[in-house]
Amino acid sequence: MSDYQFKDQMEKFSYSLGLTISNNLVQSGVKNIDALQFLAGLQDTFAGNIPRISMDEADQILQEYMLKNNEEEEATRNLEEGLIFLADNIRNEGVIETESGLQYKILKKGYGDLPTIDDHVKCHYHGTLLNGTVFDSSVERHEPAIFPVSGVIQGWIEALQKMPVGAKWRLFVPSDLAYGDEGAGGMIGPNATLIFDVELLEIV
């Protein structure tokens, strides 16, 4: 414990308040601040000075900053988890990796034609995150989907052109062949690696 001597209780109280606030900020995800501007905000408040920005604007700035910070941390975490998963997954029996980094496993062989980039296809699919969370599934809706081969994520575009009609594959799609650092919707975060079971029913 430090042997620093405070002059009075007000100094102790003020220092303790600073410790508590800063620890709460660190725990909430704030890694760095401009200490001079932080102190300026405190001084203006306690001195009754006109603030340099309005409270509404300050609230908006804090929300935007924390949201961006959380997204960046999530993107890094998702990328690391995806890379580790794919490195382990390629060792599993039957898993094949292409030059792009797409991995797949043939669950059922097909014997029909191969789609081209210009075709439309009818598929059943079931998509999950690495933790098993289902984010989209035509199987659960009991209704196959029809779409252009060129109108889906890059991992699907590559896989569909290798799949004969009737085939069912499990796709392990790296983030750069899926939705990248933007993610998609509320469930697919930035840099998320995705898993799809895809059954190619027909070329339409």
Helix content: 25-40%
Mean pLDDT: 91
Structure class: alpha+beta
List low-pLDDT spans: none
CATH architecture of the largest domain: Roll
What is the molecular shape? Answer: elongated
CATH class of the largest domain: Alpha Beta
Stated plainly, the CATH topology of the largest domain is called: Chitinase A, domain 3
- Main beta sheet strand tally, sense and closure: 7 strands, antiparallel
DSSP summary, beta strand count: 7
**Terminal residue distance:** 75 Å
Given the structure, what is the number of helices? 5
Task: Describe the protein in words.
The protein is α+β, with helices and mostly antiparallel strands and 204 residues long. The chain folds into 2 domains: 9-81; 96-203, Chitinase A, domain 3, CATH 3.10.50. It contains 5 helices and 7 strands, in the order H-H-H-E-E-E-E-H-E-H-E-E. It has helices at 9-27, 35-47, 55-89, 138-141, 154-160; strands at 95-97, 103-108, 120-128, 134-137, 145-148, 168-173, 194-203. Strands 1, 2, 3, 4, 5, 6 and 7 form a 7-stranded antiparallel beta sheet that branches. The protein is elongated. The chain starts with 8 loop residues before the first helix and ends with a strand.
Offer a concise description of the structure.
The protein is an alpha+beta fold. The chain is built from five helices and seven strands; from the N terminus they run H-H-H-E-E-E-E-H-E-H-E-E. It folds into two domains: 9-81; 96-203, Chitinase A, domain 3.
Task: Please give a handful of descriptors for the protein shown.
204 residues; alpha+beta; 2 domains; 7-stranded antiparallel β-sheet; 5 helices; elongated
